[in-house]
Amino acid sequence: MHRIRTLALLVGALSAAPLVLGAQTPAASPLAAQAERLGVFVDCQSMGCDFDFFRREITFVDYMRDRRDADVHVLVTSQATGSGGAQYVLHFIGQRRFQGVSDTLRHVSPQTASQDDVRRGLANVIKLGLVRYVADTPLAGGLRITYEAPKQAEAATTRRRDPWNSWTFRSSLRGNLNGESTYGSNSVSGSFSANRTTEAWKTRMSVNGNVNHQRFELGDRTVRNEQESYGMYGLLVKSLGEHLSAGATTSLNRSTYSNQDLSFRLAPAVEYNFFPYAESSRRQLTAQYSVGTQALDYQEETIYGRMEEMLFDQALRISMDARQPWGSTSLGLEGAHYLHDLSKRRLSVNGSMDLRLVKGLSLSGFVSAARINDQLFLRKGNATPEQILLRQRQLATSYRYFASLGFSYTFGSPVNNVVNPRFGNAGGDGGSFCFCS
Fold first, then answer.
1. What pLDDT is stored for residue 28 in this prediction?
2. Which residues, listed in sequence order, are joined to residue 44 by a DSSP beta bridge?
3. Higher-scoring residue by pLDDT: 101, 350
4. Which of 85, 107, 142 represents a domain boundary (last residue)?
C-alpha cells in the first residue's frame, strides 16, 4: 500500500511539473491540429487554374470537395484585358465560423505569361487571401511572412512610357493534312488581330481566312468538297459612364457556304448595363440595340432573283451573366429583322448553366435555339445529294437548335489534399488507352 501511495504521488508531481516550472504548454496533438485546419473550396473554371499545383503549393489548409463543408469559398472569375492578358478576380467568401468575413483580391496576367506564370501568380494571391482566416486558428504560429522588394530595373520599367500606346497584336497560321486511300483533306487557316483597350475606349480589328478541301473516292467516282471563307471585323466602343456605352461594328466577309461573294456591314449600337461595369466579373445584365446596313454581292442568283442588294436591319439583344457561389448562368435573347420587310426576321435564344443543387449534386446544361425567316442569300435551285451530305451550301430552314443537359453527383471523403499524377487519368476521367476498331 505504501508503494502504491508513493507511485501515485510521483505521477502527480510529474503531471504538475510543467506548471510549476513554467514550461511551455505542449503542442496540440496531430488530430487536434487537423481539426483546426482551415477548410477551403477553390471554385475556378478559368484558364490557369491548376488544382494539383495549388495543393502542392498551399499545404496549410484542407481542400474540401463540397463548398458547404468549407470555411472559405474562393470564387475565381476572369476577364480579358486590353493587352490580351487576363484579370483574375478572387472573391474570398467566409462561411461557417467565418460567416460574414469576405475579401476581394485581383491578379493581372500579361499576354506573354506562360501557364506556369499564371498558376504561380494565382497561388500567391490565394495564399495572401487566406492569411486573414488562418490567423484566427492555432496554425497561425506556423506562418512566416516574407517580402521581396522589386529590383530597381524592374521598378524603372513599370514607370516607363508604353511605346505601343496600349495596342496589342496577335497572329496565327495553321495547316492540317489528313488522308487515307479513299479519303483526303487539307485545310489552311490564319488570323490577325489588333486590340486597344483603355477605360474610355475599346478598339478591335481582326482578319481571318479558312480554306478547306476534301476528296472522297466512291468506287470509280471522285467527289470533292471545297469551301472558302474570309472575313474582316472591326469594333469601336466609347464608355459613357458606369452603365452606358456606345459604338459601332463593321465587317467584310466572303463565304462560299453562304453564297456571299462579298458582304459589307456597318452597324452603330448602344448598350446599357443595369449593373456597374466594374461588377462584370460577377454579374451583368445588358440591353444592346443596333441599326445596321448591309451591302451584298452574291456568287449565284438567290431564291429571290437577286445577284446583289442593299439591306437595312435592326436588332435588340438582352444578355444576362452571373457567377455566384451557387454556380454560374448565362442567358441571351436576340431579335432582329430587315426594315424593308418585317416578316424577314430572326429570334434566337441561348443559355448555359452550372448549378450546385444540393451537397454533391450539380446540374449543367446548354441550349441554343433560333426561329429563322431571313435567309435572303439562299441559292436558287435544288441542292445535289453531294451538296446536302457534305454541307457545301446553306439550305433553307425555319429553325435551328442544340441542347445538352447533364447531372453529376459526387460523394465520399469531404477532404482531398493528395496529388498523385501516376498513369495520368487512366481508369478515371477518360483513360489514356483505347482499343478501337
1. 43
2. 76
3. 350
4. 142
Residue 88 included in any domain: yes
Is pTM beyond 0.85? Reply is no
- Which amino acid, 7? L
pLDDT of residue 437: 45
Per-range mean pLDDT, top range of 57-71, 246-260, 322-336: 246-260
Q: Cell numbers 496589342 label which residue?
A: 168
pLDDT tens for 347-386 read 999 999 888 887 778 889 999 999 999 999 999 988 888 8
Whether 251 and 360 map to the same domain: the answer is yes
Give me the domain span that covers residue 122.
35-142
**Structural domain tally of the chain?**
2
| Higher local confidence (pLDDT), 131 or 84 | 131
Q: Is residue 434 part of a domain?
A: no
Based on the fold, state whether residues 277 and 396 are members of the same structural domain.
Answer: yes
Is 391 found in the same domain as 272?
yes
Q: How many CA atoms lie within 13 A of 219 on its CB side?
A: 0
Strands 308-324 and 201-218: unpaired
CATH of the domain at 102: 3.30.160
pLDDT score, position 360: 74
Domain presence at residue 436? no
Q: Which among 339, 338, 359, 371 has a CA at the least distance from the CA of 408?
A: 359
d(CA 244, CA 270): 8
Domain boundary among the residues 76, 111, 142 is at: 142
Q: pLDDT of 133-175, one tens digit each?
A: 888 788 777 777 777 776 655 544 455 577 888 788 889 999 9
Query: What is the reported pLDDT for 119?
Result: 82
